[in-house]
Amino acid sequence: MTFRTSRRLLAPVIAGAVAGAVAAAGLILPNRIRQADAGPDESRARNVILINGDGMAAAQREAARLHLVGLDGQLTMDELPVSGQLTTSPNDPKTPVTDSAAAATAWATGERTYNGAISVDVDGNPLPTLGARAKAAGRATGLVTTAQVTDASPAAFFANTANRSAQDEIARQYLEVTRPDVILGGGEDWWLPAGVAGAYPDRPAEDRAEASRGTKGDLITEAKARGYQYVSTADQLQAAKGGRLLGLFANEELFQPRREGAGGRYDPPASLATMTAKALSALSTNSKGFFLLIEEEGIDGFAHVNDGAGMLQALGELDRAVAVARDYAATHPDTLVVVTGDHECGGLTIEDTGTADESGDGPFPIKGSSLTFTLDWTTSGHTGVDVPVTAYGPLAERFTGKHPNTHVHDVLARILTR
Ligand SMILES: [Zn+2]
């Protein structure tokens, strides 16, 4: 209460000080009517970077903070100045808990739908996506993920299909319908027909089930014909030039989630931060601005197998990518950065090491401390708890408070569709 009162009292003083400083510097003030109309930041916003920690809610973020930066530290994603909460429920007759497809559809279209839906409504009708609408408004678009590039979260922004497993159809729509300028991640298996191995061999030792399985022809060849530069290694990615870029760095995900001790590993051939930097340099050449979706899938992937060590590694990679995005936005004030998760995964909590119950994953050291913590998992599936959202840049303040996940769409659309 005291805090709120003092904030109200301070507000006019700060506003007056800023106006005075602007006047003293001899700067021309922007048109006040237009500014009032659009809100203080809206007219200068052009770019949006939306960052999805798949499966990331408050416990995942806090475990990463303790383990990676310590009791007095702060993750970059938590340093973004505005924070709020999002609910994640789908509109599904069978379950109150969302999957990544329904959650990303809420972000991309503003509509809650059933699990498995890729930007279609509850009757299966296609919905306009932010990816397509941003493109129609003249913006460059892109997606970067450690999942398959055609996995549910990116797919909902750039495709419409009643079933998230139709990943070859999603790839086809990328090339022939929505044309994101930058596509970086995994999932080569859906871009090539059975029998055409591509850069990543079929049935590798680490997962015998991985093999090319597309039914839409050789989409990599089609991508090249449509002007994409195609790369399959981190070195090629580093050397790539030009605006249209397709990079596929694995048959499926860029990591192998397995139960701890059963060969799980997180070592993407191209890191999320590297892909993010490359995407930003390609997309930022568009004078009308851009939309970039960034996703770290390893948080969800390792949470599903209750592997805290793998999950913490993925969270660290996500935070490095957030730093790249935040640094870009710091020098490009027309850029909104939003960091959230599509849903929680694992029913995770953080416990004292002495607690002798249940899963007891750990102990994990707290950085800069002799203390440790244990992770306790209650499920190998998703849960319905809220996810934190943090934001920086124009319109960031709209994420204050608690909103349904469709709110992400409503804020982003104000920038991307005008
Ligand atoms: Zn999941």
From TrEMBL:
Cofactor(s) needed: Mg(2+); Zn(2+)
CDD domains referenced in this protein's UniProt entry, alphabetically: ALP (cd16012)
Gene that specifies this protein: phoA
Domain of life: Bacteria
Keywords: Hydrolase, Magnesium, Metal-binding, Phosphoprotein, Zinc
Signal sequence bounds: none
InterPro entries according to UniProt: Alkaline_phosphatase, Alkaline_phosphatase_AS, Alkaline_phosphatase_core_sf
Family affiliation: Belongs to the alkaline phosphatase family.
Protein name per UniProt: Alkaline phosphatase
Pfam family, one: Alk_phosphatase
